[in-house]
Amino acid sequence: MSLALRLADSGGEMSTPTISYKNHRFPPQVIARAVWLYFRFPLSLRMVEEMLLERGIVVSYETIRRWGRKFGPAYARQLRRRKPSRKDIWHLDEVVISIAGRKHWLWRAVDQDGYVLDEIVQTRRNTKAAKRLLIRLLKKQGMAPKRIITDKLRSYSAARRDVMPNVEHRSHKGLNNRAENSHLPLRKRERIMQGFRSVGGLQRFISIFSAVRNLFVASHKKRSALTTHIHRVRATAQWNAVTAELV
């Protein structure tokens, strides 16, 4: 057994692949590589096209776009999610994003390790929008957190009283750097992509982008070079298992 698979096995059970590449001219490894490059790094579709060409793979950026739309969501669904804990601390924040000249808000929740728990694009920055995020989080996580941390936006306090009144809430801008910093990778992508063209396109992109980032980026806890390397090897092994062709 390879080192990557042994390390992956020691880290827990992998997801069973359910991806079908039937009727596609390119092999699964090429498709998965293209999707990984696009969602893992701040690259444009044309940059990915050029990188594949350097490897002797001639494929258009439009084909890479179609692969991302078709296989990206399937890959994201298969990636293993970290099991929630009652000790979790949720950091909530919202950031404005312009789509087709209109202002929208991306609401995001991360845990104490910087792992993205959920994010949703909404047209409002009010209590109703904050409640929608909290309800989605409870449904996905299956349990309430130990504490939530937000900035001074009052909508969070009102939403928390209605949705999870027994959960501790700390509201302080200085405490919420983890959630605010979580927006930076998407901001880089936004510049590379020259903005997003639709709400649906942004929501679809972030669901894949964050799932891939959650897998490959280590937590914010201090790690040695060796443990970081092992984390990346395990992540690569899991990615290869998730994107493998179903036999």
Structure in words:
The chain is of the alpha/beta class. It folds into two domains: about 5-80 and about 215-240, no CATH class; about 90-190, Ribonuclease H-like superfamily/Ribonuclease H (Nucleotidyltransferase, domain 5). Helices cover about 50% and strands about 15% of the residues. The chain is built from ten helices and five strands; from the N terminus they run H-H-H-H-E-E-E-H-E-H-E-H-H-H-H. A five-stranded mixed beta sheet has the order 3-2-1-4-5, sandwiched between helices. Helix 6 links the parallel strand 4 (about 145-150) and strand 5. Helix 1 (about 5-10) crosses helix 10. The longest helix is centred in the N-terminal third of the chain and has 18 residues, at about 60-80. It is globular. The chain starts with a helix and ends in a 5-residue tail after the last helix. The relative contact order is 0.18.
Overall radius of gyration: 19 Å
Number of helices: 10
Order of helices and strands: HHHHEEEHEHEHHHH
Biggest beta sheet attributes: 5 strands, mixed
Task: Give the overall form.
Answer: globular
How far apart are the termini? Answer: 20 Å
Which range best describes the helical content: under 10%, 10-25%, 25-40%, 40-55%, 55-70% or over 70%?
40-55%
**Count of structural domains:** 2
* Mean pLDDT value: 87
User: What is the percentage of strand-forming residues?
Assistant: 5-15%
The beta-strand count equals 5
Which structural class matches the secondary elements? alpha/beta
Strand order of the largest sheet: 3-2-1-4-5
Poorly predicted regions:
1-17
